[in-house]
Design a protein that fits this description.
This protein has six domains: about 70 residues, Phenylalanyl-tRNA Synthetase, Chain B, domain 1 (2-Layer Sandwich); about 120 residues, OB fold (Dihydrolipoamide Acetyltransferase, E2P); about 190 residues, Phenylalanyl-tRNA Synthetase, Chain B, domain 3, CATH 3.50.40.10; about 70 residues, 2-Layer Sandwich (Phenylalanyl-tRNA Synthetase, Chain B, domain 1), CATH 3.30.56.10; about 230 residues, BirA Bifunctional Protein, domain 2 (2-Layer Sandwich); about 90 residues, Ferrodoxin-fold anticodon-binding domain (Alpha-Beta Plaits). The strands form 13 sheets. It has a seven-stranded mixed sheet, with helices on both faces. About 0% of the residues have low confidence. The chain has 21 helices and 45 strands. By secondary structure, it is α+β, with helices and mostly antiparallel strands. The chain is elongated and about 115 Å long.
Length: about 850
């Protein structure tokens, strides 16, 4: 929400200065993102001038310029009554007031004004257009100021360009602050000022048994329970040629809205000022009574953006005898649109159920200023006053006549009453808040308070439908007293046994990745079918069984991730696209795997705590959420140095990282060649744990397939790892992640060289050696691979170093016996022959 300070001060007495107001807004929960001063980019003098005369002079280049004499009052040269200025614009007349930048002034963009000779004259200044002063985008002609602007005065002051604008991040529960009225009320309360509500007129009660209001207005019928209140006021005979006054144009632009023409500008102005969305209908185009109802299946509506929309029964409509004329609370229909020649206007000010409006605009991908406010909750008591304010502006600025008959269909819903203990705010906030202070704060917020023996009966104002639960009132007291008032206390740590084995193991895995030189990242847990297509996943891949989010942040990524790789590969692409070629990132987070349970949605009431059975049912519907470890590597593992060439990343590094994570979890892993998208089929390994006759997999690592590399825009040779951390936790030692003391017993090293067919993987031989060696084996490593004619065609020699250790001193004979058992196991499993 963008709020000009002058507009805030018009509604409230705010004693604080700009910096202080920004601070108290932020301390009160309204984060001030930016304080903007439109005039900050201008240095020097921009003054009001009066055009005394001009001569139009055609030029050889086909352009016609005006040689003007402009009176700038006390800024005229000594002894002169005007300044001579060359101007290329032709949209002003003699006697018009204009903005003149004097010589020595610097305009936005560093454009310096000087007296210089041009087109045969010395131009002593510049008559400015809107875009030249940084006040808008119009460059078609210079700005003509109000006739009563005093000559020689500060033109930026006259234009309101010296008005500071606050850009405020309004959280979803503070919908009442999406208006100048709401922000002015908050500013007055936070700074100790006074607030005068220009919209204090209550909604008149509807006549019993009639759709109309206190007098006979335009007929309206409410058939949707999502619209409990609808007011309508008609204004006839407006002058369609009436311009939007400059003060309104300036405020609309400062608040981030584009001026269109007067009738539309007034509805937008009142929306910004009050927070009540309005809609204006060209009354000439209405056919019969207005009916608010839900859409029929298959109905269509062409909205103001000229798009024909197919409607669903979840959409609430404004209709007349011709059919739908508006998507309630979101956007009007094209057939009843206000035109530049409209003379009769029907102003709608209604209240719509927030959930209904939120669902409709998301379904149609049609966010608007109106829907943004309706989905957060609009003040029901505001509708009539806001409609009346718009009608009065049409009367005052366009000569319209307000119809004596107006419509009030429905009524303002009663506000929820809550009773709390007066000590509750202090108990929750953690410091003493006297009852008198609680009452004072809440009454200043508009809450009706009845105190009775330490109990407070509270009724919120119509603009605060967020005040429902007792703790909503605690938050309100905390915000208004300032969160900075809450004392900082370090909570006492409860007695316990420290981290669980699972927590220690996860931390050990993270530490192992960081120790290897990787940077941890956290990516958004969403993906779409396009992301899985870029990975090259086949149709039946389990990772395509995704969980769809009911209300996704992006339609391109509507599902919870079933793999960490899309987020990591996108992060890799962001880095490499910014010339950071050597990327080593990892993430440890949950993935979400669909269980195939197609039971209907369960939505317990939020008014009370769900029952134990409902909670159990909710948990039963959750997808499986195992934690995964993902890694992406690109570029070089080691850079070029004076004494060594760069070492590019390869599948070896990916596999080493997978082994490091497994080791940190206390898992002795094995790997085998595998084919799994998105990895290169010849450079991919599956990791797992081997039992007697089983292989339990827990992840993959290797070089990415070239098609996946190209799809994600990564450098050739990029590598990746993805491991199931929860599977590692179930397979690892409970003491993983703890410090282990060094053994006092000496190790015995034995080397073996085995000859096998060159089709036998080294990992298969290692696996067989490990199984045969038994519990005395501490570690095993491959240190030599040899091929040659002396071994025979198609044969290779693999040399392994075996380290044996026990809780005592091993004899050479015991170590040799374990080594022989390992060799026998490898011979049986792979056909290995001991090389002598």
């Amino acid at each position: 929400m963008r709020a000009p300070l002058s507009w805030l001060r018009e509604l409230a007495e705010i004693p604080a200065g700009t910096a202080e107001l920004a601070r108290v807004f932020t301390d009160g929960g309204l984060q001030v993102e930016r304080v903007e001063d439109p005039s900050a980019a201008i240095s020097g003098d921009v003054v009001v001038g009066c055009v005394l005369d001009f001569v139009e002079e055609p030029q050889k280049n086909g352009k016609t310029i005006r040689w003007c004499h402009v009176d700038v009052g006390s800024h005229n040269p000594p002894g002169e009554s005007a300044r001579g200025i060359v101007c290329g614009a032709r949209n002003f007349a003699i006697g018009d007031k204009v903005a003149v930048a004097l010589a020595g002034t610097t305009l936005p963009g560093g454009f310096k004004i000087a007296s210089r000779k041009t087109y045969g004259h010395v131009s002593d200044g510049m008559i400015c257009a809107e875009d030249e002063l940084g006040l808008g985008e119009d460059h078609a002609g210079i700005m003509v100021l109000p006739p009563d602007a005093p000559v020689g005065a500060d033109a930026l002051e006259v234009l309101g360009a010296r008005d500071v604008v606050f850009e405020i991040d309004v959280t979803p529960d503070e919908g009442h602050c999406l208006s100048i009225r709401g922000l002015a009320r908050e500013a007055a309360q936070l700074t100790g000022g006074t607030f005068t509500d220009p919209f204090a007129t209550p909604v008149p009660a509807a006549l019993s048994g009639q759709a109309g209001g206190v007098t006979a207005g335009y007929p309206v019928r409410l058939e949707s329970p999502a619209c409990p209140l609808f007011t309508a006021i008609r204004v006839n005979g407006i002058d369609p040629n009436s311009p939007t006054p400059p003060w309104m144009t300036r405020r609309l632009r400062a608040a981030g809205m584009r001026p269109i023409f007067l009738a539309v500008d007034i509805t937008n102005y009142v929306l910004l000022e009050s927070g009540q969305p309005l809609h204006g209908y060209d009354a000439r185009s209405l056919r019969g009574p207005i009916v608010v109802r839900q859409a029929h299946p298959g109905e269509h509506l062409t909205t103001l953006d000229k798009i024909d929309r197919t409607l669903s029964p979840s959409d609430m409509l404004i209709t007349d005898d011709s059919g739908p004329i508006g998507l309630a609370g979101v956007m009007g229909g094209l057939t009843t649109e206000l035109q530049r020649d409209t003379t009769d206007v029907l102003i709608e000010a209604a209240w719509f159920e927030p959930a209904s409006i939120g669902g409709t605009y998301r379904r149609h991908k049609l966010p608007s200023e109106a829907s943004r406010r309706f989905e957060r909750g609009v003040d029901q008591g505001l509708a009539f006053a806001a409609g009346r304010r718009a009608a009065e502006l049409l009367r005052d600025l366009a000569g319209g006549v307000i119809d004596e008959g107006y419509t009030v269909a429905g009524a303002v819903q009663p506000m929820p009453v809550q009773t709390i203990d007066s000590t509750l705010p202090g108990a929750i906030l953690g410091y003493d808040v006297p009852e008198a202070t609680v009452i004072e704060v809440l009454r200043a917020s508009g809450v009706a308070v009845i105190a009775n023996g330490g109990r407070l009966t509270l009724t919120p104002p119509t603009w605060r439908r967020d005040l429902v639960d007792p703790y909503d009132y605690v938050e309100e007291v905390g915000r208004k007293l300032g969160f900075a008032s809450i004392p900082s206390r370090v909570p006492t740590a409860p007695a316990g046994l420290g981290y669980t084995p699972s927590q220690r193991t996860v931390r050990a895995i993270v530490a192992a990745m960081a120790a290897a030189g990787l940077s941890e990242t956290i990516t958004l847990p969403f993906l779409g079918d396009a992301d899985l297509d870029k990975l090259g996943l086949p149709g039946g891949d389990p990772r395509r069984a995704t969980v769809r989010v009911a209300n996704p942040l992006s339609d391109a990524q509507p599902c919870l991730r079933s793999t960490l790789l899309p987020g990591l590969l996108a992060a890799g692409n962001r880095n490499t696209s910014r010339s950071i070629d050597d990327v080593a990132l990892f993430e440890l987070g949950a993935v979400f795997l669909a269980t195939g349970d197609a039971r209907p949605e369960l939505m317990p009431s939020v008014a009370t705590r769900p029952s134990d059975a409902e909670i159990a049912d909710l948990f039963a519907r959750l997808p499986d959420q195992p934690r995964h470890l993902g890694v992406v590597l690109t570029g070089h593992w080691l850079p070029t140095r004076w004494d060594a060439q760069a070492e590019p990343v390869s599948w070896r590094h990916a596999m080493a990282l997978a082994e490091a994570a497994s080791s940190a979890a206390g898992v002795v892993c094995v790997r085998r060649a595998a084919e799994q998208a998105p990895w290169h089929p010849g450079r991919c390994a599956q990791f797992g744990v081997v039992g007697v006759d089983t292989f339990v997999p827990f992840g993959w690592a290797g070089e990415l397939h070239p098609s996946a590399v190209a799809a994600w825009g990564l450098p050739a040779g990029a590598c990746a790892v993805e491991l199931d951390v929860d599977a590692l936790l179930s397979l690892g030692r409970p003491e993983a992640g703890e410090l282990v003391s060094l053994s006092a017993s000496p190790a015995v090293k034995q080397d073996v060289a085995l000859v096998v067919d060159d089709t036998v993987p080294a990992a298969a031989v290692e696996r067989a050696l490990r199984l045969g060696a038994g519990p005395l084996l501490e570690s095993i490593s491959l240190f030599d691979v040899f091929t040659g004619p002396q071994l025979g065609s198609g044969r290779k020699s693999l040399a392994y170093s075996l380290v044996f250790r026990a809780d005592r001193t091993l004899t050479e004979a015991e170590a040799s016996q374990a080594r022989d058992a390992a060799v026998a196991s490898a011979t049986q499993a792979t056909g290995a022959v001991l090389r002598t």
